[in-house]
């Protein structure tokens, strides 16, 4: 099963994305299939292979874990629909809330 997560990063360092979208394979150790970095000006960066070149492959935490601040107080997350993920992937632009 695939889950789509929208992660908000409060006070992200300059140059880092304020929002990150993940396409998570819940049947494969919660590994991300794709992700989208969203920057303050609405531009996006599509990442078709999140783990390419990674030394360590890390599963994506659940929305409950992210909202329990297991990974830091600055992260908040919600589940989104596949259609929202795909629309942003295709348009390469984000006009939603930060």
TrEMBL record:
Residues 3-91 form the DUF6881 domain. Pfam families: DUF6881 (PF21812). It comes from Anaerosacchariphilus hominis. It comes from the Bacteria. This is DUF6881 domain-containing protein. InterPro entries: DUF6881.
């Amino acid at each position: 099963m695939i889950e789509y997560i929208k992660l908000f990063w409060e006070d992200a360092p300059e140059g880092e994305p304020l929002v990150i979208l993940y396409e998570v394979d819940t049947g494969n150790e919660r590994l991300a299939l794709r992700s989208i970095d969203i920057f303050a000006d609405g531009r996006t960066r599509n990442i078709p292979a999140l783990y390419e070149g990674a030394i360590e492959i890390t599963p994506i935490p659940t929305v409950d874990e992210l909202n329990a601040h297991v990974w830091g107080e600055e992260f908040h997350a919600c589940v989104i629909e596949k259609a929202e993920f795909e629309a942003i992937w295709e348009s390469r632009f984000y006009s939603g809330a930060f």
